[in-house]
């Protein structure tokens, strides 16, 4: 009986995992999100750091960054599923693109920033919004989370990554990062060594919408996969500097938003 139950469960799990969409769009995987949170944590001003410590208690920005993926299976949060990405077709700006009635990553970040600034939220609501913000600023910097509208953010581009079946979205979420075999703190420390003041100042120009347009501009490079059956070291070599840059920018911009909210 027990064996049969286990077998049924395994089979069910297999079916669920095979459903289209079940593997889509987690963004940056856990390591990428934590790197963004860790970098942001190190750029917080004193006031913001104090306030965040009070709200997040035993967690920091790195640890709470994956919460929005953890709640995906909780039906109370079904309404948040589309908040992780946005569609901006080639040649368009966000303003001209058709809006998702369920919300998108740009609309949500803008909404949350102004809600946090309003200082009218209950503490529980504030903590929830804060965790969402940490995650969504990360997502906004994963180039394939600003999709063309044609291939579900690269999820439909099936590839072989290092001889294993994958898809282009997952290559950017986690395959490249995981191949480096660094912990999130190791990767974050390596990135922090690259920071220079002039670059940081230039990254803080613009706003959420122009940051999303940087992802649009990266498309020719991201989709230049060569033979999709043989993706691996060459693609990694060409795109790793962009992965690093996007993680670093996301962390620094997240700190900037939080310093502005709480500083
Ligand atoms: Zn996400």
Give me the secondary-structure topology.
Blueprint: H1 2-18, H2 29-42, H3 46-56, H4 61-64, H5 67-70, E1 86-87, H6 105-118, H7 123-140, E2 146-147, E3 158-161, E4 164-167, H8 168-179, H9 184-192, H10 197-203, H11 208-217, H12 219-222, H13 233-262
Parallel strand pairs: 1-2
Antiparallel strand pairs: 3-4
Helix pairs in contact: 2-7, 2-8, 2-9, 2-13, 6-7, 7-13
The structure holds zinc ion.
Write a structural description.
The protein is mainly alpha-helical and 263 residues long. It has a single domain (2-68, 121-262), classed as P1 Nuclease, CATH 1.10.575.10. It has helices at residues 2-18, 29-42, 46-56, 61-64, 67-70, 105-118, 123-140, 168-179, 184-192, 197-203, 208-217, 219-222, 233-262; strands at residues 86-87, 146-147, 158-161, 164-167. It has a two-stranded parallel ribbon. Helix 6 runs antiparallel to helix 7. The longest helix is centred in the C-terminal third of the chain and has 30 residues, at 233-262. It is globular. 36% of the residues are buried. The model is unreliable at 11-23 (pLDDT under 50). Zinc ion is lined by residues 26-27, 68-69, 84, 135, 139. Zinc ion (ZN) binds next to helix 5 and helix 7.
